[in-house]
Structure formats: C-alpha cells, structure tokens
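User: Design a sequence. Structure:
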C-alpha cells in the first residue's frame, strides 16, 4: 500500500493512503497489519491519526485508561470530528470517568439481558409485519425495507418516539455517518434538525410523561437536579446530558444494528451451508451471532481516542493529544489470534471479538443488538426459504467510509 504525501503538514511519518480501505477493506487491512502494528493515516475527519491494526494491541487499548474519549484532550491541530452543539455532544462517546460512570449508570438498567428478553416477542411481531409487507412482491432491497426499518421501530418504541416523528431519522443518520461530498452542508443541516427534534420531544415528554425510557430519564433528571432543572444543584444528569443520551441511544441503536443485520444476511447468503443449518435449527443463531459480528461486523473502527500522555504502541511513540483509531475489523482478521480468520465458521467457537467494544465503553445496547439480530434473521429465514441475492455479488457496494462497514443496498429475491 503506497504512502501519500503528508498533506496535513505535521511532523512524523507520511500518511498511509486510506482509499484501499474503502475499495477493498479486508485485503487492505491485511497488508497494513502485516506491515506493522500501527500506521499514520488520514483519519475520519481528514486529519492525521494513528491506526492500530493487531488484535492484542487493539483489545488492550480499548481498556487502557491512558486513552481518553473526551475531545478536550485532543491536541491543537488534531481531531475535529463532527461539529455538534453542547446539547448533543455531552454523550457517552465523549466522556471519561467519573462522568461516564455516572451517566452510564442511569441508563444501563434499560438494556439488561432480562429486560431485553421481555422485548423479544414484540420485536418478533415487528419483524413479521415488515416481512408481511414485502412478501407479495417477491423481491426487495432488504436494507431499506427490513434491516433499516426494524431497528428504528424498536429503538423508537423503547424511547417513546411517536410514529409521525420517525420518517426523517434515517436521512439525518446517513448525513452524519456517511457525509455526501456533493452536499457539504447536509451534515450541519442534519445536526440542526436533530437538535430541534430532541429538544421538542423532551419538552413533550415532560408535559405528558409516558411508560418509556425517555420519560424515565426525564424523571431522573428533574427529580434529582434539585434546582428546577438547570443542573447546578448537585443533580446527576444535566439537561445537555439528557438530550445527548436520547441522541446517542437513538443514533447508535439504529445505525449499528441496521448494518449488523444486513451484513449478517449477506454473509449467510455467501455461505449457503451455514444458512441452511440455521434455517433448520434457528436456535443456532445465538451461537452464530459472535462469528457473524467478528467476520463482517459494522464496527470498522472504535471511537477515536486521545493519549493523556506520550505512549508507545507497537514500537511507535504517540504524543499526548494525537488521535488513535483502533481497528476492530483488522483485529478480527488477525491470524495471530484467530485461526483461519478469513473463513466464516460459527462451529469453531471463536471468542473474543471486539465488535461491541471492550472495557468500560463496552456497548451499552449489546443485549438489545444481539436479540434484534437473532430475531430478525430467524424470521427472515423462516419466511423466505428461497432467499437469494437479486443482483450479481460483485455489484454490491459498501458505503464509502472507513468509519463503519455497511452496504448501500441489499437487493434480494425469494
């Protein structure tokens, strides 16, 4: 893989070209991983970053307290990222302890395995309703009509988002996660729309509380602030943190699960023997989840991190404040940890994937994502025994970003 000129004008090694990571992710990551454990690249915001590629390093650094998530630790000229207003930026992906511990504790009970399991039957009904709608057509873009619909319905039901307010959410999410170069202002517009949406939704829930997660969080916020809601009276949740929590739960609960489901369907279509086994015995989906998440999970990179001090990674000294990107996708194909890592085989019982993170920032919604994917795949395989791709495999396209691994569309027939 060729190096490019260091266009950012910073000291240090020249930047590795990231275009191959978009064009052919796994072979490109394999070349980087073989060449060395850490590389200087243009990050997701175009600024220099350090990409860590090998499993042992990635896993260890996910849990290393010397790497902060709070953007205030980014050095001058380093990370820029999304330009979010404070009311959306005070979220768990930009927090370190003790704030992270305090805020996470308030919402973690909503995603316990026991509570999530109670949602399985309602999610099964949603899956069947979505499949009822497309079954007569005999073909569909499964990403748009099924994988992209089920998670937004589930997470909106959990939070208490009215049906009429859900229609624009996917467009806003896509504008943030996969910016369109032809529409440079789209991401800023999406942020403004999201801020108005959450502010108005929280005001409505305050006026008319319901039996949903957002109403519960509002009650915690207002009952414990002790000062009428401005967050200065020793309360555990500020107004910005409340709004940011709603933003993160909806965005993360939608975006990652959409592509986890769609990528898993494609993987099974590419491996018809495993697909047939799971169709005959859907109970195997619980065990298959980990291998599906490892083999083609949506988390190409972990959330960017910033060293609190100069640290050594793979023989390279990374100065405090620079941006570190941990590649879960590369770690998952590391032959030093996984036997035959480019082979998809749920029978090998390979453990230790990092698709849901590791350490204190392990995915809050992991039990929900697991249950949704198992339920979505079980319903799909049961209803459509003749499921197949509706276009040649080589015509499928991945989204043009190194941030996450997701298809643009998934045309299928049955």
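Assistant: Done.
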């Amino acid at each position: 893989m060729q190096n490019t000129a260091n266009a950012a004008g910073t000291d240090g090694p020249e930047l590795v070209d990231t275009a191959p990571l978009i064009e052919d992710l796994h072979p490109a990551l394999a070349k980087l991983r073989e060449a060395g454990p850490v590389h200087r690249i243009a990050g997701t915001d175009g600024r220099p970053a350090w990409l860590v590629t090998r499993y042992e390093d990635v896993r260890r650094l996910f849990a290393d307290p010397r790497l902060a998530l709070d953007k205030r630790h980014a050095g001058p000229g380093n990370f820029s990222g999304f330009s979010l207003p404070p009311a959306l930026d005070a979220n768990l992906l930009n927090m370190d302890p003790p704030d992270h511990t305090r805020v996470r504790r308030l919402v973690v009970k909503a995603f316990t395995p026991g509570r999530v399991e109670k949602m399985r039957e309602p999610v099964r009904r949603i899956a069947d309703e979505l499949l009822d709608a497309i079954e007569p057509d005999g073909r569909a873009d499964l990403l748009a009509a099924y994988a992209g619909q089920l998670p937004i319905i589930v997470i909106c039901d959990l939070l208490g988002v009215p049906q009429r307010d859900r229609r624009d959410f996917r467009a806003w999410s896509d504008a943030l996660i996969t910016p369109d170069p032809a529409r440079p202002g789209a991401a800023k517009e999406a942020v403004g729309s999201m801020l108005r949406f959450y502010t108005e939704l929280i005001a409505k829930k305050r006026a008319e509380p319901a039996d949903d997660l957002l109403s519960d969080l509002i009650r915690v916020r207002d009952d414990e602030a002790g000062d009428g809601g401005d967050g200065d009276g020793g309360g555990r949740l500020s107004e910005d943190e409340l709004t940011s929590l709603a933003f993160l739960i909806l965005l993360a609960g939608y975006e990652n699960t959409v592509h986890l489901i769609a990528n898993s369907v494609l993987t099974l279509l590419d491996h018809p023997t495993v697909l047939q086994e799971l169709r005959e015995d859907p109970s195997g989906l619980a065990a298959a989840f980990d291998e599906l998440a490892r083999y083609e999970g949506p988390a190409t990179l972990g959330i960017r991190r910033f060293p609190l001090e100069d640290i050594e990674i793979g023989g390279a000294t990374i100065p405090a404040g620079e941006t570190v990107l941990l590649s879960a996708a590369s770690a998952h194909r590391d032959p030093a940890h996984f036997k035959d890592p480019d082979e998809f085989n749920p029978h090998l019982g390979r453990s230790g994937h990092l698709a849901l993170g590791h350490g204190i920032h392990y995915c809050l919604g992991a039990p929900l994502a697991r249950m949704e994917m198992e339920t979505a795949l079980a319903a799909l395989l049961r209803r459509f025994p003749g499921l197949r791709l509706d276009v040649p495999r080589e015509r499928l396209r991945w989204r043009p970003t190194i941030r996450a691994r997701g298809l643009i569309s998934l045309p299928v027939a049955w």
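The chain has 17 helices and ten strands. The longest helix spans residues 239-270.
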